[in-house]
UniProtKB/TrEMBL annotation:
The active site is at 54 (proton donor). Pathway: Cofactor biosynthesis; riboflavin biosynthesis; 5-amino-6-(D-ribitylamino)uracil from GTP: step 2/4; Cofactor biosynthesis; riboflavin biosynthesis; 5-amino-6-(D-ribitylamino)uracil from GTP: step 3/4. Zn(2+) binds at residues 52, 77, 86. One of its GO terms (biological process) is riboflavin biosynthetic process. Pfam families: dCMP_cyt_deam_1 (PF00383), RibD_C (PF01872). Keywords: Hydrolase, Metal-binding, Multifunctional enzyme, NADP, Oxidoreductase, Riboflavin biosynthesis, Zinc. It catalyses: 5-amino-6-(5-phospho-D-ribitylamino)uracil + NADP(+) = 5-amino-6-(5-phospho-D-ribosylamino)uracil + NADPH + H(+); 2,5-diamino-6-hydroxy-4-(5-phosphoribosylamino)-pyrimidine + H2O + H(+) = 5-amino-6-(5-phospho-D-ribosylamino)uracil + NH4(+). This is Riboflavin biosynthesis protein RibD. The keyword Zinc-finger does not apply. Residues 3-125 form the CMP/dCMP-type deaminase domain. NADP(+) binds at residues 156, 172, 198, 202, 298-304. Converts 2,5-diamino-6-(ribosylamino)-4(3h)-pyrimidinone 5'-phosphate into 5-amino-6-(ribosylamino)-2,4(1h,3h)-pyrimidinedione 5'-phosphate.
Length: 370
């Protein structure tokens, strides 16, 4: 593949990233229509997954699409959903060539999009920038192949891994640039998740603020017995910004009804011992369409996710001071007695955020596209 193909495909990937956190349950796809080195149309998947990126780009390009190349981050759909297949639109536009980063594992699409295009005489090329596309679309790929969203565990800690003093004081461990990064991360995820302890102790709103955001992530609270105050910030705003309460089968029926009355969606989940089974929680979230979840604590929830191998990415923001052993740890007990029992993550990004350091890690290989 020539350098121009890679350049235009990476442009499509960049367009797709603009939709992260806004398109679930559909993937955040980008598309660019190019002819003779000139860009005719650009498209990003719309809010809520419609319209698809290919249709947006084709509409911009209009009749000039004939004989052009379409660069797409994910295999175009070939099934009838709420809209006709994108393959039909590409064929009707008389596109000559389609360059795609990865295939779509959705069984309604998988390979069928490529086959439909080839049957129509369109040249199809697959596989360039595949690793980048899998990283960007990891949440969608995870939901399609594992039935659950991709989970990013975010921890803002002191140099020695503490999230609060012994008295519970935690504002502010990191500086304003780090906090702005967190708001941007929330905007790129379908949902922000916390445990009941964090919801009680911090009374967070978990919204995207001070960034001109017009779309908010779902706020997910993991609380077996729904023991979160009904006058909390989350409860008071549940009718304006979605709140999903993940609870156990033994939650008080009166509390279930109370949270419903406040506007929250109730998500019953299974138990593992005396705690909610986090695999069950994530499967329920995936069944409801979520693809990318940002977990912001607390320590017990982080430990549960890590111990069950359910953390796909870790994003740490480390401040340049120490609290000492009496401070509260960012991650609860994992029960490890040997280092070879710990899950290892690979560093993929590091950057300075003012006086703090960001480091992002991934677990193993991302979910595969075809």
């Amino acid at each position: 593949m020539n350098p121009d193909d890679i350049r235009f495909l990476r442009l499509a990937l960049g367009l797709g990233r603009r939709g992260l956190g806004r398109t679930w349950p559909n993937p955040a796809v980008g598309c660019v229509i190019v002819k003779d080195g000139r860009i005719l149309g650009r498209g990003t998947t719309g809010l809520g997954g419609r319209p698809h990126a290919e249709r947006v780009a084709l509409e911009q390009a209009g009749a000039a699409s004939e004989g052009a190349t379409a660069y797409v981050s994910l295999e175009p759909c070939a099934h009838h959903g709420r809209t006709p297949p994108c393959t039909d639109a590409i064929i009707a536009a008389r596109i000559a060539r389609v360059v795609v980063a990865i295939g779509d594992p959705d069984p309604r699409v998988s390979g069928r999009g490529f086959a439909a295009l080839r049957e129509a005489g369109i040249a199809v090329e697959i596989g360039q920038c595949a690793a980048e596309a899998r990283y960007d679309l990891g949440g969608f790929l995870s939901r399609m192949t594992r039935g659950r969203p991709e989970v990013t565990l975010k921890l803002a800690t002191s140099f020695d891994g503490r999230i609060a003093t012994a008295s519970g004081h935690s504002q502010w461990i990191t500086g304003p640039q780090a906090r702005r990064w967190v708001h941007a991360a929330r905007a790129r995820h379908d949902a922000v998740m916390v445990g009941a302890g964090t919801a009680r102790a911090d009374d967070p709103s978990l919204t995207v603020r001070d960034m001109g955001a017009t779309h908010q992530p779902v706020r997910v609270v993991v609380s077996r017995r729904l023991d979160v105050p009904l006058m909390s910030a989350l409860a008071r705003s549940a009718k304006e910004v979605p709140v999903w309460m993940c609870h156990g089968p033994d939650a008080d029926a009166a509390l279930v009804d109370a949270w419903k009355g406040l506007g929250a969606e109730m998500v019953p989940c299974g138990l593992s011992g005396r705690q909610l089974d986090m695999g069950s929680v994530l499967n329920e979230l995936g069944r409801r369409g979520l693809t990318r979840v940002l977990c912001e604590g607390g320590g017990a929830l982080a430990a549960s996710l890590l111990s069950e191998g359910l953390v796909d990415r870790m994003a740490g923001i480390t401040a340049g001071f120490a609290m000492g052993a009496e401070g509260l740890p960012g991650i609860g007990a994992l029960g490890l007695d040997r280092l070879d029992g710990a899950s290892r993550f690979e560093l993929v990004e590091e950057a300075a955020l003012g006086e703090d350091i960001l480091h992002v890690w991934v677990a193993g290989r991302p979910a595969e596209g075809l």
